[in-house]
Amino acid sequence: MALPEPPRPRVPARQFGDLQLDIYLDGLEGRIPKYPVDFASLERKAAETLPWWVHSYVAGGCGDEYTQRLNVSAFQKYGIVPRMLNGAYERDLSVELMGIDLQTPLLMSPVGVIGLCAQDFHGDLHVAEAAARTGVPMIASTLTMDPMEAVAARFGETPGFFQLYTPRDRDLAASLVHRAEQAGFRAIVVTLDTWTPGWRPRDLNAASFPQLRGYCLENYFTDETFLRRLAASPREDRDAAAREWMRIWGQSLRWDDLDWLRSLTELPIALKGICHPDDARRALDHGMDAIYCSNHGGRQANGGLAAIDLLPDVVAAAGDMPVIFDSGVRSGSDLAKALAMGATAVGVGRPYAYALAVGGTDGVVHQLGAILAELDLLMAIDGYPSIEALRRAGVRRA
User: Which residues are catalytic?
Assistant: First the structure.
């Protein structure tokens, strides 16, 4: 009687961390990565590539940029404690955000000049294509070089979110939201802390404000409600169109405005810029669907606390409402810490903006892959087979 064959070991599904093996195997053939995998190297290359005025806008922050630097350095105060024998041979990075299933917890935060970060000035389209290739959602800014409809058309099967700078003209706000809904965006992200520009010395010293020169305003210049405000089309008088945009760009919202915003759409709404637990609780009372804990990366107000230090209290106040986080995230280990501190999903900004400058769509795909590979390998080595397990473990203060 023949003995039964022993069971064959199951071949694990491909994991994000396998990217490092691909790189090492390529090295055996004499091929090194075309783009850096770390933020510092990417930042240096982007500085050599971007036009000076775009680099100034993207790299700069408010005041002496103390809060911007603090956002980054504050991650060093927290650490993840390894837990062994948890069977982390395979990791599940999937999450649910506002009823939407995502392959990973990584998002591309809205960057208002991302269109200018590509060498052809169509960065919004390149980032949308990277979202389609990676499954990492793009939060498309209101400020784009291409209309939102063209951006959304490139998402493929990946969900996309639309970030709204709420204008003073309510009819225009409604138009932008309705267009986003019809274009196929899956949620609206309302930015609360950018109804007026912050004090940014790098741009002020050069008197350089890209939008006032007519850049990144295509969502306005293709909107019938906005065009009715103009005496001539933007093609005929771009300067006048840009000045009209500045006049009605930002509305300093009040709590009762949320009921009006809620009435505009059935899409989920996330409020971006919430950093206090009381504000998180009030957002829940007004029927919002997610909290977005962020201090705009230190670009809007200097002198504040690091956003990551504020995250735990916001998470506690939000209860079952999901919390998105960004500000200062530069790597997969930063991403892991924010998740362990309670974030449902985490956004990056400068990492993918610089990657776009250096390598276009391919550069963004590579950088997102590098961030996810580091997160995946950290979870593997520290013994966390899922995002939920990482979140239950939390962090320790260094």
Answer: 296
Domain tally, the chain: 1
Element (H or E) spanning 324, and its range? strand 323-325
| Confidence band, pLDDT 50/70/90 cuts, at residue 12 | low
Tens-digit pLDDT profile for residues 352-376: 999 999 999 999 999 999 999 999 9
> How are strands ordered across the β-sheet holding 290-293?
106-108, 345-348, 323-325, 290-293, 269-272, 187-191, 161-164, 139-140
pLDDT at 304 (0 to 100): 94
Output the pLDDT for position 7.
Answer: 54
Percent of all residues in the chain with a pLDDT value above 90, rounded to a whole number: 94
Helices (H) and strands (E) in the chain, counts: 17, 12
pTM of the full structure = 0.95
Average pLDDT over residues 291-297: 96
30 Cβ neighbours under 8 A, 6+ residues apart:
none
Residue 110 lies in a domain: yes
DSSP per-residue codes, 179-197: HHHHHT--EEEEESS-SS-
Kindly state the tokens that stand for 168: 């003073």
Cα 394 → chain centroid? 22
Within 13 Å of residue 216, how many CA atoms lie on the same side as its CB? 25
Range of the domain at 57: 39-397
Provide the CATH number for the domain around residue 370. 3.20.20.70
| 95-97 vs 100-102, strand pairing mode | antiparallel
Task: Annotate 75-89 with b (16+ C-beta within 10 A) or e (fewer).
Answer: beebebeeeeeeebe
Rounded distance between C-alpha atoms, residue 334 and residue 371, angstroms: 9
Give a yes or no: residue 183 inside a domain: yes
Q: For residue 16, is pLDDT > 50?
A: yes
What does the pLDDT average to over 74-93?
Answer: 92
Residue 93, CB-side half-sphere exposure with 13 Å CA sphere: 28
**Residue 155 and residue 130 in contact, taking contact as beta carbons nearer than 8 Å:** no
In a domain, 2, yes or no: no
359 in a domain, yes or no?
A: yes
In the structure encoding, which two tokens stand for residue 156, read together? 């493929």
